[in-house]
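COMPLEX REQUEST
Ligand: zinc ion
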Amino acid sequence: MEKVKIFDTTLRDGEQTPRVSLNVSDKIQIAKQLERLGVDIIEAGFPISSDGDFEAVKAVSEAVENVTVCALARCNKKDIDRAAEALQNAKHPRIHVFIATSDIHLEYKLKMSKEQCVNKAVEMVKYAKSLVDDIQFSAEDASRSNPDFLVEIFEKVIEAGATTINVPDTVGYAQNEEYYNLIDYVIKNTKNSDKVTFSVHCHDDLGIATANALAGVKAGARQIECTINGIGERAGNSSLEEVAMILDTRANYYNVSTNIDTTQIYKTSKLISAITGVSIAKNKSVVGENCFLHESGIHQDGILKNRETYEIMNPDKIGIPKSDGLILGKHSGRHAFVAFLKHHGFEMSEEEINENFIKFKELTDSKKYVTIDDITSLVGRLPYNENYKFHSYTSSNNNDGTATVYLNISHGDNLITKRAVGNGQVDAAFKALNSIVKRDIEVLNFEINAVSSLSDALGEAKVKLKLDDQEISTSGLDLDIIKASILAYVQGINKFGI
Ligand code: KIV
Ligand code: ZN
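STATUS: Structure written out below.
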């Protein structure tokens, strides 16, 4: 199967997400994970845009080994020099030179004729090529540009040394067939198109960025530009996890493959969400919380008999931690109720199950979703003993961005005190708790929400924890959100029966 290169632009276009700003250490951490994920190219930033971005591209260039590191530059020498300088220590550097080609951008933004645009592009691609061998050229707003003008400029920049030609749908305007036709047209009509890689870069303004990118692949593009969780300018870009799982799940349709290690997808998605603060919608394809949950009784019955009745992907393949995949609600049947009880370690006779199933059905008339805590009180059994109890804590923020927490926890008659340092107070407190119980509990998910919209709202911390093969979700409520987080974690420790 032919390979499609995955060009990840989370650190460049992704950083253009409104209200997102990544510092050097964020970018290093993300770049290392992207390398583990198996992307071919990391677009690390736009070095001329700020000293911070320059330093970040430089640091990423030094932090990764096997992946190409790309830096963005407009068609001018200053941008290109800064990009080349930032990439100096990259093992595989690429400069990405772009200029807009649509009439509206030429007239209003660049105030340039088409001829001036071509000359500038050719001159700057030649200049970039004198500094770095791997040159990508992008025709910004290509989908609203004249296709014959694109052919003309592409032919000339290929002659000047560009090795990748990117055809962006910058404003997310193109429809699927139009984008397919555009890519097909430029590949078929550009001289020497077979000597370069054609690339797609689609925005999600109308919600079809991923579909458009894949239409481009069908038409012959062999590089896809995308971001983790689809973040990016305005409505974002094609999302990497969707692209990778579509090409994997429907390899029979696309006949191409990627170098992505799909088992790293979930972890990467969570990392990007945590660092950028951009949360993942529950129903987000591939990585959303609801993707492998089944609520309807008919679906649950099918899943229990054979998962493929209602799942086209295996969550293991995406690296999603195991769960029973069932969510109990008003549409759940007896079969799912029994499976849920079993999964959470309740053993019951047939008679007890029948009795509790009636109570469960009554409960779902008044409550849409039923949690493990509801079931616990419903069946009248405690899932855990309160072995550990929160006593008090103090904390301080350190100059290097870390925090120190002193935590007092009671265990029977003993008061245990532990000090820990972490990335913020919550992280430090969780580390202290792990060292108190001497177990390596992993945090799979952590959320804080205000219970009302007033400034004195109670904070609710929700945490999903994993210990060996067991996963549990707990919550804590307090005016102090650090304390709420600690309460949730302590409850988790007790639920694990430590
Ligand atoms: O959307 C776009 O056109 C871009 C270019 C810089 C490739 O992000
Ligand atoms: Zn873009």
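REMARKS: The chain has four domains: 2-276, 290-319, 321-371, 388-496. Residues 58 and 87 are 6 Å apart (CA to CA).
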